[in-house]
Every structure is written in C-alpha cells, then in structure tokens.
Amino acid sequence: MNDQKAAYYQFHPELKYQVYLKFEDEEVEKRLSDTLDFLGFFKVENDQAQAIVLNRNETKILKISQASPRVAKQIQTLSASMDHYGPESLSSHGGYKVYRYQSAGMMVFDESSYSWEMGLVKIPARLEEIKVMLIRFVSWALASKGVVGFWAVPVEQGFVVMKPAESKFEAVFVDIEQMSLITRDGVYPLSADAQILRLEETLKNASKKMQKEELLSFLYANTTYFSYPEFTEALKRSLFEIASFAQGVIYPVENFKPRTDAQVDQ
After folding, report:
1. DSSP β-ladder status, 60-66 and 115-120
2. Among candidate residues 219, 220, 221, 227, the one with its CA nearest the CA of residue 248
C-alpha cells in the first residue's frame, strides 16, 4: 500500500487476520489509544503497513476520522428506525450498509469491499459507544471466516455469555478454525471441554448442564451481531460446532464473581 502518512492498527496480528484500522488524524488516534489496546488492536510498523496486500475477500480496513459537520448532524439526529436496536441502527443504501450509533458515530461499509469508513463525534466523551462500534466492525469483518463474537467475559475454563450491558460491552471471539479464544486478556487455546456459562438468578448454590439444543439456541441469541439474517454460512457452522463440543452450564448469578480491572492489571 502507498500511504506513508496514515497509521495502521491490526486486530490480533498473531492470528493473521487482515483486519485493520486506519488513522490519518494523529489526535483521533491518540484519543482512542486505550480503547484500541483494550480491543486487541496493535500498531503496524510503517514498513509492514506498506507491505499489506489487499485481498477483497479477507482484507478489511476501517478508516476512522472525526465526522464532518454534515455527518455529525446525521449521527446526532433521532431516527424512527432506531427503536428496534436502541441507539444503534443498521440500514442498506444501494450497494452498501450504514451502521449508526446515535450521538457517537457512523460506519459505512460493503462486505465485498476492503475499504470501510467510520466518522466519530465527541471523542473521548463517547468511548464506551465507540468500543461497541469497533466490536461490531470486528464482528462483521470476520464473519466470512466463521469467527463468532459474543458479549461475554472469560473465565478459567471458558466464558460467561451475557447481555451487552452486563458484560460492560466486553466481547469474546471464538475462532473454530484456529481453536482460539480471543479475549480482552489475550488469545488462548480453545479447550475441547470448554464451558459456556449462562447466569441464572433463580438458581441457588448449584449449577446444571444445558442440553445441546438449549446451548445452541442460547448462543444464537447472544452474539455480537444484530440479527439472524446477518449470519453467514461460516458463522452458522461455527455455532453448531461450538455447541457440539462445549459444555453449556447454567450457573447461579449470586455465586459469580466478576473480574475487576485491578485483577486484569496484575
């Protein structure tokens, strides 16, 4: 690539994903540095960035910038189409899609193209929302490879799947092909007897196993995608594969001790 001035970040380069963020504004890059680190994006050295080979099927490069006044107005305007997903919306316009997080940002993309764009407003006041937007980006960018994202937090033997707000908008990605679990803390081998936990308020002092069909239904309902129609065939195969070997466990919520930032930093 011939773009000397831009800064690039790659999503977990150890897994060889061709998923990148691109910054041409140093101030925007600086303000998002902690968020990028949290999500597993690592800066690409300039010589390596110039060597990136564009592959329309696998390479996804999201250019992030401050939204122009016109785009910022669109981002901040209320829309009747938002009520199904809360502050988020996804719509189609001709050959591309528009994803918007109200008052935070907008992303324009086409799954068949390697070049995507995101305009943001109110940095750093909207960092939590921007984190969600970048998780959506990773989810869509890796969907064709069957890498499945869940709103979840990792535990010793697997991960706990939650609602987005319950996980504090943290995500776990499962790569069946590489048998890897991608978490905030790093990339770990995916065990053949991994446990997937669902927290239950009515359960007291004992856990119980989920049936495979119950686990599969639970996984389908709690991914980092908006809805079932978004699932590629690769994602569907991965979900069936995960449900076939993982142990689904219903666990008492009162017995679950969430990880703290202090524990992560140790």
Report:
1. parallel
2. 219
What is the phi/psi pair of residue 260, to 5°?
-105, 160
DSSP 13-43: GGGT--EEEEES-HHHHHHTHHHHHHHTEEE
- CB count in 10 Å sphere of residue 129: 20
The span from the CA of 235 to the CA of 98, in Å, is 21
pTM, entire model: 0.91
C-beta separation of 180 from 190 below 8 A: yes
Per-residue model confidence as pLDDT tens digits over 226-254: 876 678 899 999 999 999 999 999 999 88
Report which of 220, 213, 255 is spatially closest to residue 236, judged by C-alpha positions: 220
Per residue in 52-94, pLDDT tens? 888 888 999 999 999 998 888 888 876 655 545 588 988 888 8
